[in-house]
């Protein structure tokens, strides 16, 4: 699909690919007003530039947000590429997941800075928080109040190893509370 719509001959990229049919074609209905659309990433070594994929993603976000005026929650790959390529342009709010550590805090600061430049509201969710000190570390180093925190969880670690899901306990309840907060926020 990328080859036909965004990746052109001689390494050229179509910056305005046709995407109006993609959301309906590739999303899965979860409930009456909730659809899941998984957006791929790197599939193999040596794939080359992801500019065509980003072009389609950017066009899809514009279609969903601006033309359809729909609310969307999109889980995107970690890092700064979505900001540097302007993939999130037109989005009103992002939630940045940040773990207590120098690297994660550093990238989160950059994402917040770029979000401000793009006039996008950015809230931070502290992830894998073991104690109050780690929560305070994030708040102090990011100079903001965290939108929500998700506790570190051995159950999640074990479930990840086994390939199972966590459907109860502190972690599960925290994620459920986060979902409720997001719904109120939107």
Low-confidence segments: none
CATH topology of the largest domain: Rossmann fold
Average pLDDT taken over every residue = 82
Please report which band the strand proportion falls in: under 5%, 5-15%, 15-25%, 25-35%, 35-45% or over 45%: 5-15%
Label the overall shape: globular
- Helix fraction bin: 40-55%
CATH architecture of the largest domain: 3-Layer(aba) Sandwich
Given helix and strand content, the structural type is alpha/beta
**Rg estimate, integer Å:** 18 Å
Number of domains: 2
- Please give the order of strands in the largest beta sheet: 3-4-5
Major sheet: 3 strands, parallel
Characterise this structure.
There is one protein chain. By secondary structure, the protein is of the alpha/beta class. The protein folds into two domains: 1-76, no CATH class; 92-186, P-loop containing nucleotide triphosphate hydrolases (Rossmann fold, 3-Layer(aba) Sandwich). 45% of the residues lie in helices and 14% in strands. The chain has eight helices and five strands. The strands form two sheets. It has a three-stranded parallel β-sheet. Strand 1 (28-31) and strand 2 (34-36) form a beta hairpin. It starts with a helix and ends with a helix. The mean pLDDT is 82.
């Amino acid at each position: 699909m990328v080859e036909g719509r965004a990746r052109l001959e001689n390494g050229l990229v179509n910056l305005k690919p046709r995407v109006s049919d993609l959301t309906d074609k590739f999303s899965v209905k979860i409930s009456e007003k909730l659809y899941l659309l998984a957006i791929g990433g790197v599939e193999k070594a040596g794939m080359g530039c992801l500019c065509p994929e980003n072009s389609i993603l950017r066009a899809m976000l514009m279609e969903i947000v601006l033309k359809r005026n729909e609310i969307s929650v999109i889980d995107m790959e970690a890092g700064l590429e979505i900001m540097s390529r302007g993939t999130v342009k037109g989005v009103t709010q992002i939630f940045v997941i940040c773990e207590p550590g120098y690297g994660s805090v550093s990238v989160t600061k950059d994402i917040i800075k770029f979000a401000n430049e793009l006039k996008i509201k950015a809230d931070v969710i502290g992830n894998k928080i073991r104690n109050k000190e780690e929560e305070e570390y994030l708040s102090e180093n990011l100079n903001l109040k965290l939108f929500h925190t998700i506790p570190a969880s051995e159950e999640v670690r074990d479930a990840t190893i086994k390939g199972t899901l966590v459907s109860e306990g502190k972690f599960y309840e925290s994620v459920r509370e986060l979902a409720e907060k997001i719904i109120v926020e939107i």
